[in-house]
Design goal:
about 30% strand; globular; single chain; about 210 residues; alpha/beta; seven-stranded mixed beta sheet
Length: about 210
């Protein structure tokens, strides 16, 4: 499949998946038109890179659907120069989008640094739920997937007034949530139900059984 075909697929993704579903930040749209998503998925899945569903990566991991990525970035209200802590970006796709939007990106993931990652991105190999305190404080903390709870360690790495955006798994329903830090507290609002992959590197609560 040619690059021309992939460019057409990117344009179709923006027109049919993003613009129709509250992804209305011009910087997000421009980045998702520019960055070749097909370069950030397994080679055997390149032709499905723009389908609006999770793409398996192996080892129980997957990359978010394009709509989930677009909604996360839109709600985060990224401005050029923002210091962003990105968590759960195994392939580097969201890091590349943030870099294209002018953010200063630190990504934390247990995976090796992706070969396609922009040089300006700081890649920290580690457990995502711990963040990267050495680079704090951050203007934005972005969890690129769904978690059952947002660790206090990540909230502590935000600047006063900073934003945190994530998917929150509440009894099997994933909700897009956004919070803002005021003093030592972070208040969250639920924005929408949204399909997201489970974020790696975060604790999972034990299942509760009833008899």
């Amino acid at each position: 499949m040619s690059e021309v075909d992939f460019a057409a697929m990117r344009a179709a993704m923006v027109a049919s998946q993003l613009r129709t579903s509250d992804v209305n930040d011009s910087a997000v749209i421009a980045a998702m038109l520019r960055i070749p998503r097909e370069d950030y998925v397994p080679a055997e899945r390149r032709e499905t890179a723009y389908v609006d569903r999770p793409i398996p990566l192996g080892n129980g991991r997957a990359i978010n659907p394009p709509l989930a990525t677009g909604r996360l970035l839109t709600v985060a209200e990224i401005a050029p120069g923002d210091k962003v802590l990105l968590l759960n970006d195994a392939t580097g796709y969201s890091s590349a989008l943030l870099d294209a939007m002018g953010a200063v990106v630190t990504a934390v993931d247990e995976a090796d640094r992706p070969a396609t990652l922009p040089a300006a991105v700081t890649w920290v190999q580690g457990r995502a739920e711990q963040g990267h305190a050495e680079g704090a404080p951050y203007d934005v903390v972005l969890i690129d997937g769904a978690v059952e709870e947002i660790p206090d360690a990540l909230k502590a790495q935000l600047v006063d007034g900073g934003r945190i955006v994530a998917g929150l798994d509440e009894r099997g329903v994933t909700r897009l949530v956004a919070g803002r830090k005021i003093g030592d507290a972070v208040g969250f609002v639920n924005l929408a139900d949204l399909e997201m992959v489970r974020a790696a590197g975060f604790r999972v609560r034990p299942r509760e059984f009833t008899f």
